[in-house]
Amino acid sequence: MLISGNLAFASDEGWLYDFAAEVQSQAQSHNLPGYVFIFVRKGQPAKLITYGKTEKYGAKIDRNTVFRLASVSKTFAGVLMAKAVEQSELTWETPILDIVPEYGFNRLQPNPITLGHLMSQSSGFIPNAYDNLIEANYSLKRVLAQLAKLEPLCDPGKCYTYQNALFGVLEDYYANQQSSYASVIDQQLFKPLGMPHASTGKQGLVASPQWAKPHIAITRKKWRKASVQDDYYRYGPAAGVNASIEDMAIWVRAMLGEYPQVVSPNLINTVTTPLVKTKREMRRRKWRKFLNDAHYGIGWRVYDFNGHKLNYHGGWVEGYRADVAFAPDQQVGYAMLMNAESNLINSFTAQFWQAYFNSVEQQRKQEVAKQAGN
């Protein structure tokens, strides 16, 4: 359930009102086309904030408006593959060579790249290997064939090396089983969770009754509507999911444990266990003053945000930005979707969690003072 419109904020949620007002002020200052975000507490209705339109003369953005999730898609891929492992279809130690034998990945290497290395971004390949070929619209098979010839920078599992193209292995894996990644994720996650607008692929986006058109910056305050590109859609596990904010509310709830029959507590723990340290994240602008530690798990980043565990992922493709995060100990989560290629989302998400955790600390101090007064 979502709440929208003229929100009634609880007495302890003044911070959320202030945050929403600041985001809107910055959005107006930069003339952003549109965005939507949610705040979710486990077991309670979500708070929904919308702004702007799908395009200049389009419909107002609402809970049903569909956006591209870009690399937030990796959070779904992580959970889907954890389910495959849970169901004994694969193991984290299964070599990529066994998953797609036709490419010969690491055939002569003593330490093969495994499914676990793929999903934890620790393949050892140079970061973002052959993203340029994706954007040049090379076929998936041609890109994977090129990847298979690369020499790793480090042994698999020993260093963080973020990838997109390598996730194409999962597209081929399901195709080789006379299925597709899109149909499997629909059957295993979207339908069981009851996500009304979620899909994978370009056709899923443009077939939506209402979808947000992508926008790229011309100047700091001017935006131009762009066309939807096919490139990263060919790599569904990396960047191919589409969703509305209503879908994202359900996804956050699933990661908070509200759908244990679909996403079990053990599975949540698996995908959010730190596996490889991500030192570069510690220097991330707008975030670095809050981060004490940063790792990658299985399709999720795992941060120490001023002493609090925060599971997070962001996404960026031409014309869209997306963020999702949840704090398991607090049982709260957040997601933001934009139809603009704006770096403002980085500061918005960091500001959100700063405001939330500050409110928690203030409530704690008030409770201590109240007890001392008694």
TrEMBL record:
Taxonomic lineage: Bacteria, Pseudomonadati, Pseudomonadota, Gammaproteobacteria, Alteromonadales
Cited InterPro entries: AmpC-like (IPR050491), Beta-lactam-related (IPR001466), Beta-lactam/transpept-like (IPR012338)
SUPFAM superfamilies linked to this entry: beta-lactamase/transpeptidase-like
Domain Beta-lactamase-related intervals: 20-342
Name of the molecule in the record: Beta-lactamase-related domain-containing protein
Domain of life: Bacteria
Pfam families tied to this protein: Beta-lactamase
